Task: structure prediction
Amino acid sequence: MTNIRPEGKCPVCFSSFKFDKRRGFICPAHLTTPQRYVIRPFYKGERITRGTTFDGKTIRTLADALTLLRQFKDEKDRRILDITKWKSKLKIEYAFKHLIWKWYQEKEDLMNRGKLARGYVPKLRTYITNYYESFFKGIDVREILSCKDFARQLNKSPKYQKNILDALCSFFRWLRDEERLIQTIPVFPKIEVPEYEPQIASKDVRLAFLQLISENEPEHIPIFTYLIHQGCRPSEVRALMGDCIEGDQVSYRRNFSGRRLVEHTKTKRIRYNYLFPETRAVLPRVFPKQFVFTHGSGRSYSQDFLNDIYKRTLQKFNEKYGTNLDMPLYEFTKHSFGTEFINAHPEHEKLLQEWFGHTKPEMTRRYAKLKVVDAFRKLDNVKRIGSEWVVEGVKTP
Result:
């Protein structure tokens, strides 16, 4: 069927759709079908390509493509064909491919100026090359009224689908608010993402892990002691310099974004925390512009190197104690610290939020889980005797 072409590829195996006389265009292996079509008839030696009907709707089915192609042939046979009407009206300034890369270039410029995280912008390039370009190829952004078909063909986890769609929605907001090319944002489906449940390591487990570090790789005791006792972002710990330490106080003012040191934290504000005695006991003394934590010949810790040490020691921990722990360093340190604190002091949620540097309390609650059953169990053990409240089983002086 040379005059009709399906757009996109099979969302499962990414192979091209094949034409079957009985079933139309289809992926033989997974039975998926195209979500868009274009007609490509010839007129006076010129190939005419059109992917929308005359009321501006994208051609979504093979039946609609055949109907439009028959209309073209009928007008041609009756010699009433107005070829200017059939030629694509897509201009470069409205082409999705042109605009999506213009938007990306702005994001890349912001990243180079330190305004956007280096871990975020490269993901946008991945979304564009792997998902957006193939689906919206050759489409005028003014003709995109809904992104539900695009979302439907994404064969990814709910979380990854949401990330792809959130970035695409950001692109359309840019078209509306900054470029003034569209009046309304297309309709997006709501993706339900299961609540994130971080894994937690108890304090005893974390201290036993620290003991293994001291036995096998003592050079790295300072940074792991800090991570376990202070409960903070590993990227900010790696970026600590001597000017951040003053007595029993630490200030977080730098961060590693990707592999680059940047002069601001993730939230773009300086944060001050208390240094616990266990941490102060192992802090090396360095000059103001030297990294606090180094290894080898004074090199700072990279994310990969720190994770390698952690995974290596966690494997030894599992072998020694017969456990099956498998969690990211972030959860083993920061999230475990937060969960332990909030369950011991549920009334101090705001304090923990400031400690973590979260801008919203919902973020703190997401990563520092209050164990409701345990909390009520403790409350149930509190009894009133006369004018005093006591906890059952605990002797008062």
